[in-house]
Amino acid sequence: MRALYRLRVAIWTFAWILFAWTSQAFLHEAVAADPVKVGFSLGLTGANAPNGKQLLIALEIWRDDVNAKGGLLGRPVELVYYDDQTNPSNENNIYTKLLDVDKVNLVLGPYGTNQISAALPILAPRNLTTIGILGTAANSEAHYKNYFSMIPLGPDPKREFSRGFFELAAAQNPKPKTVAIVGADAEFGKNATDGARENAKAAGLTIVYDTRYPPASTDLTPVVRAASEAGLNPKLMGGTMIGLLATPLKIQMGPLMNGYLNNAEVFVPIPTFNFTGVRELLNKYRERAKGQGVDPFGYNFAPYGYAAGQVLAAAVAGTKSFDHPKIADYIRTHTFDTVAGQIKFGKDGEWAKPRMIVTQWQNITGNDLGQVTDLKNWVVVWPPEYKTGNIIYPFESARK
Fold it and tell me: Quick one: 369 and 262 in the same domain?
């Protein structure tokens, strides 16, 4: 009987040990399978919507690509995001909700200068790391150490945004003598026009008109009239025209774009921009964009949204951690190969080396997709290392 009792005790003990071990294994597996929540805001309605929707598709592709390879540290990525309605005042509530209610592990964004500047006061006191997407000098006032910028403006972002425009102006014969500077009365417009003002003075140009208009303005006729009355006779026309990065608007404008310079371009599908993985990304983007009413190509936005995810993922893998200060230290001290090219970060989280371009629309004769995407009409005129054609000068010659 004692032998039978000992056998029963041994069996029950073994069963209990086996149960405890398997329970811990299942618990460990369940915890390991918990998603890594990546939180952000994008303008999916309002003025930023055409671009915000492109970025969302890019980030969804990034999520799916990461998860197909096993996730981040063995855990699947889940995107948690909200529409900021292109209103900077919404960033406080959105990021507070992401952090306190949704309990996200990592953050990205927001998209746009005005929105990033509004979000940093929420993120900085918590010592969190973020990668802002396509914001101009958004950290130039806060100097927050754990902010990084996904835009190729380099260490002097305000001046870099328009440097190419003014270098082109200085190289023309006869050289222009005067300039009018106009921008939206918001953080982005202020940063862009501050830089333009410095560049104009350095180029020896006389500023004959300098103003900012309310961001909600839809009719700029009074601004154009006032500039003309100030004596402006344009030989070059252009600037940081974010709206004309969107293909649908390009189609709408058609030949009206001829002659305009755009120094807001950050990606053109030319051979020198064929970075590792970008072609595959853009092919996936085009498939997903079908039927969604968004830009069919995603050129100036998809690579940078995806690259922001790539940098974040590389830092997580490199630190084997979701600890924000460790992630920030890793980003500061490493170089990243991304679909947007090789990136190293420097002062204020900006790119250590700029890579901006200036394009000019030339010889467009119709309002069809082929016209506005043909690289014979969509010409990179600066800098020399990326140049695909010569500028048409003066402005009126490109309008003929």
Answer: yes
Per the structure, the complete domain to which residue 69 belongs is given by: 36-153+273-349
Domain count across the chain:
2
Residues 247 and 260 in one domain: yes
* Sequence letter at residue 89: S
Which residues are 42's β-sheet partners?
A: 83
Reading the block at residue 203, the tokens are 């180029």
Is residue 134 within 8 Å of residue 304, measured between CB atoms? Answer: yes
Residue 46 lies in a domain: yes
Q: How far apart are CA 65 and CA 71, in angstroms?
A: 9
Question: Distances from the Cα of 92 to the Cαs of 37, 81, 83, 86, 152, in angstroms?
Answer: 19, 14, 13, 13, 26
Q: Which residues pair with 336 in a beta bridge?
A: 343
Whether residue 3 lies inside any domain: the answer is no
pLDDT in tens, the chain (400 residues): 445 445 454 444 444 444 444 444 443 443 457 999 999 999 999 999 999 999 999 999 999 999 999 999 999 999 999 999 999 999 999 999 999 999 999 999 999 999 999 999 999 999 999 999 999 999 999 999 999 999 999 999 999 999 999 999 999 999 999 999 999 999 999 999 999 999 999 999 999 999 999 988 989 999 989 988 888 889 999 999 998 999 999 999 999 999 999 999 999 999 999 999 999 999 999 999 999 999 999 999 999 999 999 999 999 999 999 999 999 999 999 999 999 999 999 999 999 999 999 999 999 999 999 999 999 999 999 999 999 999 999 999 999 8
CA dist 145 and 124 (Å) reads 8
Q: Do residues 193 and 245 share a domain?
A: yes
Q: What are the φ and ψ backbone dihedral angles of 133, each rounded to 5 degrees?
A: -110, 115
Query: One-letter amino acid identity for 338?
Result: T
Cβ-contact 122, 91 below 8 angstroms: yes
**Count of positions (residues) in the chain:** 400
User: Residue 390 is part of a domain; what is its CATH number?
Assistant: 3.40.50.2300
Question: What is the spatial distance between Cα 395 and Cα 400, in angstroms, rounded to a whole number?
Answer: 9
Show the DSSP H helices in the chain as ranges: 2-33, 49-68, 91-100, 113-123, 157-170, 187-202, 221-229, 247-253, 278-289, 302-319, 324-333, 369-373, 395-398
